[in-house]
């Protein structure tokens, strides 16, 4: 059955793009048949997802909005990274951090597809952001979590273990900050049954939510479970109303997830994180590059290149196929698509996609 025909509720979210800093990528490390000298400065995009809800009080039902961020981009202060992270960042210069995600929320982008605001900050990161979902915890997506003092953080299974202990010689613990996320306000999504990583050594293990948790999650949390949907093996209905789906997207880094947002009756936005770093890979014009891993072998920018390719195949099939039903539009946006950013500035907050 086509997905669209299963979704009878008219619950939509609004998605706005946010600047989260920039970094510079050498093309030869990311795509095949690359110019060995070419380097491109690209964005690390964040996204604001606004979900409508109804709260019941003594005065009756009232409408409210849940503000959710997907990814936080680059840290505002590079000194907040570990020494090993800073050594890596030195190879990604130039790196820009202004505006970062928090500044983008406060200021917005002039010329967006909404009326100009002149009433001070648009959104206060410390007070107005309810939830943060991280596609994964690489340095250019982790941002500055302390800016979001009242937010609950949701991450892929195994992420907290990865931050503390790393995951083997290519992902040592010094490439991560153990105290990056507020433990009392962080929850991992459930483990994915039959993980594609199988019984491989040094896979980060799931961390249960603390009994003393201060997380504030939608009621649907109690029913979270991974189910197949539209060709994706593991999908979670985040709010329980089919307005926002978390999609297990293995390959790039342990715990990597994507979002599928329903923004209209027959219109969806797929936020692909780091499934690939160049849209030409997604559409089959290029392939994922392999390079010397410094340990006598070859690797790609993904922890499991085969799994990353299968995830891309699923996305491509999803967009091009009939699983969503006829007449359904799906827009895919990857985190580092500089061309998309330049062509869509009017869709940045306080505008929308």
TrEMBL record:
<dbReference type="Pfam" id="PF00753">
    <property type="entry name" value="Lactamase_B"/>
</dbReference>
<protein>
    <recommendedName>
        <fullName>Metallo-beta-lactamase domain-containing protein</fullName>
    </recommendedName>
</protein>
<keyword id="KW-0378">Hydrolase</keyword>
<keyword id="KW-0862">Zinc</keyword>
<comment type="similarity">
    <text>Belongs to the metallo-beta-lactamase superfamily.</text>
</comment>
<dbReference type="GO" id="GO:0016787">
    <property type="term" value="F:hydrolase activity"/>
</dbReference>
<dbReference type="InterPro" id="IPR051013">
    <property type="entry name" value="MBL_superfamily_lactonases"/>
</dbReference>
<dbReference type="InterPro" id="IPR036866">
    <property type="entry name" value="RibonucZ/Hydroxyglut_hydro"/>
</dbReference>
<keyword id="KW-0479">Metal-binding</keyword>
<dbReference type="GO" id="GO:0046872">
    <property type="term" value="F:metal ion binding"/>
</dbReference>
<feature type="domain" description="Metallo-beta-lactamase">
    <location>
        <begin position="125"/>
        <end position="155"/>
    </location>
</feature>
<dbReference type="InterPro" id="IPR001279">
    <property type="entry name" value="Metallo-B-lactamas"/>
</dbReference>
């Amino acid at each position: 059955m086509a997905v669209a025909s299963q979704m009878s509720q008219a619950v939509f979210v609004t998605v706005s793009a946010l600047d989260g800093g920039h970094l510079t990528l050498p093309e030869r490390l990311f795509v095949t048949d690359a110019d060995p000298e070419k380097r491109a400065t690209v964005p690390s995009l964040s996204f604001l997802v606004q979900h409508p809800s109804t709260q019941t009080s003594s005065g009756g039902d009232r409408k409210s909005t849940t503000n959710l961020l997907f990814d936080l981009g680059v840290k505002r202060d590079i000194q907040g990274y570990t020494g090993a992270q800073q050594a890596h960042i030195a190879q990604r210069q130039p790196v820009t951090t202004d505006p970062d995600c928090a500044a983008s929320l406060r200021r917005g982008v002039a010329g967006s597809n909404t009326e100009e605001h002149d009433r001070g900050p648009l959104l206060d990161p410390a007070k107005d952001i309810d939830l943060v979902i991280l596609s994964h915890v690489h340095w250019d997506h982790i941002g500055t979590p302390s800016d979001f003092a009242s937010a609950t953080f949701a991450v892929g299974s195994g992420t907290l273990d990865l931050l503390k202990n790393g995951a083997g010689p290519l992902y040592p613990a010094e490439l991560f900050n153990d105290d990056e996320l507020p433990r009392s306000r962080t929850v991992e999504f459930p483990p994915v049954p039959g993980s594609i990583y199988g019984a491989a050594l040094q896979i980060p293990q799931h961390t249960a939510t603390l009994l003393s948790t201060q997380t504030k999650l939608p009621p649907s949390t109690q029913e979270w479970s991974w189910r197949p949907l539209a060709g994706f093996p593991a999908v979670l209905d985040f709010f329980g109303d089919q307005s926002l789906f978390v999609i297990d997207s293995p390959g790039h880094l342990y715990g990597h997830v994507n979002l599928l947002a329903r923004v209209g009756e027959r219109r969806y936005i797929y936020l692909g994180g780091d499934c690939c770093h160049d849209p030409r890979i997604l559409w089959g014009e290029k392939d994922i590059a392999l390079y010397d891993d410094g340990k006598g072998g070859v690797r790609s920018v993904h922890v499991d290149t085969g799994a990353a390719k299968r995830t891309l195949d699923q996305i491509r099939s999803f967009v091009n196929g009939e699983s969503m039903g006829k007449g359904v539009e799906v827009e895919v946006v990857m985190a580092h698509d500089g061309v998309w950013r330049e062509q869509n500035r009017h869709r940045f907050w306080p505008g929308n996609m």
